[in-house]
Amino acid sequence: MTAFSASTTAEAVVPVERARVWDILVDPDLVARFTPFVSSITAEDEHWIWTLSGLKVLGKGFSATFTERMTLEEGKRIEFTHDPPSGTKERAGVHGWYALSDHDGPEGGVLLETSLEICVDLPLPKLSAGAVRTTMKGVMAQMGDRFSKNLLDHLGVS
Fold it and tell me: pTM above the 0.85 mark?
């Protein structure tokens, strides 16, 4: 196995009240439903267990289950850190955050900022790192675009 990682950041103004966006981001069922390649998210106390499926990396199918410790600052920030159960090795993990703040522009709404880094262990040679990172960035962009569209549709502002 070889570890590969990719990261992304994004921000957008969502023209609704901050509480409406917050309520979605802390609902594991909605987050899973809105995010492509995520088949489920199960909440267990401060952990969310994510299950990914349907991904292809350089022609090889990839699925993974990974555990994230979720730290919430009510209405403002969600931080997530890969935190597998003791003695467990997971093939994927994410570190990152969502930040929400009121947007003072003429349209009002909430400024939603995100940052995340995904790390995966794949049965591919290190020489494929450039191609794997390119693929990962493409998948992350697709996931972000579809999540955004689904979020806006759900909020009735698309």
Answer: yes
